[in-house]
Every structure is written in C-alpha cells, then in structure tokens.
Amino acid sequence: MKKYEGGFSLIELLLVITIMGILLTISFRPQLKSDFEIKQQLDSLAADLRWARNKAILDNQTYIFRIYTVKESSAANKIPYYFYVKENDQKIIKKKGYYSSDLILYKTLSLKVVEAEYYEWIRFNNTATARGGTVGLAKAHPNAEKYKVTVNQLGRVKVEK
Fold first, then answer.
1. Which one of 46, 55, 137, 143 has the fewest beta carbons within 10 angstroms of its own beta carbon?
2. How crowded is residue 134: how many other Cβ atoms within 10 Å of its Cβ?
3. Domain limits for position 27
4. Beta strands in 59-153, from DSSP E residues, in sequence order
5. Tell me, what's a Pfam family for it (predicted)?
6. Predicted structure pTM score
C-alpha cells in the first residue's frame, strides 16, 4: 500500500489557523481598546445629557451644556464640560464632567472640528424640549472613526458611530 504524503493533516491546519487568529487579535487590540475608551466616554456624556434633560424638567429651569476644547490647568489630560443654569445673570454650574485630551471635539451633523475655546449649543428646556445639537469625538489621526452624541429637538439623546 502506498502512503499519500502530498497534503497537511487536520491537526496541522488547525494549529496554523489558531496561531494566525492569535496574531491578528494581538495586532488589532490597540484599536479595539481605543474604540472602547471613546465609546465609554461618549456613553458617559450621553448619560449626563439625559440627566440634564430630566433635571431641567424637575427643576423647571433651562440647563445649558458647554463643552471645552482646551484642558483646564487643574485637570491633567482631561478637558471639561459642564451643565449650568442662569440665575440673576449668573451661571450656576449644576454638573461637571470630563473627556480625554487625546480626542478631537466635533460639532454639527457634518462633524466640523470645534476651533473655538468651547461649544455651547445644546440647551434643555423645562418643557422637555431642547435646542438640539451634535457632539462628536475622535482620536487625533486623520482616518480615525468619529463617534457622536446627538440631541434632537424633543430632547432625546442618541449615541452612534
């Protein structure tokens, strides 16, 4: 009987496929971690926006959202955003949050880079409506995936890629 020696065994094929899968997973890991971090920061921002909508209704006030493009001196590697109300011509901060300074801030549905010191367009009224807007975040390289949080006129908050 002749022995056929022209191919690979099933075990050899499975071993090669497993090794290639491990190598590919390791090579894509930094991008997955980066996407996860951005998504996590956007989810936190979206939760804060929903909080502001609810507080505007409960407190019977207009909550204004302001997000900055430059870090404040006390917070290393973090850029602030906050919600405030106006009382007697004064801004009273009701809640403050941060996003990473490694990210670029975008505005509007077409995702234009915010070049001013801050972006302040989104407002939640006491009637559960809002002057809606879009906030986008992405890493600093040109082909980076952009993620956005959109607030519509009814005050609904949506996170998307």
1. 143
2. 21
3. 11-160
4. 63-68, 78-87, 90-100, 103-107, 112-113, 118-119, 123-124, 130-131, 133-139, 147-151
5. GspH
6. 0.77
Q: What is the mean pLDDT of residues 83-112?
A: 91
Residue 96 or residue 142, greater confidence: 96
- Encoding tokens for residue 146? 């952009």
Which candidate, 161, 16, 14, 40, places its Cα nearest to that of 100?
40
Q: How many CB atoms lie within 10 A of CB 98?
A: 18
Q: Is 2 among the domain residues?
A: no
Pairing of strands 63-68, 123-124: antiparallel
pLDDT attached to residue 73: 67
Domain CATH code at residue 77: 3.55.40.10
Number of domains in the chain: 1
31: amino acid identity, one letter: Q
Q: Which tokens go with 130?
A: 């809002």
pLDDT (tens digit, 9 = 90+) per residue, 62-76?
Answer: 999 999 998 776 667
6 assigned to some structural domain: no
What separation, in Å, do the N-terminal and C-terminal C-alpha atoms of the chain show? Answer: 61
pLDDT digits 0-9 by tens, 22-44: 887 776 666 556 678 888 888 99
Check residue 33 and give its pLDDT. 62
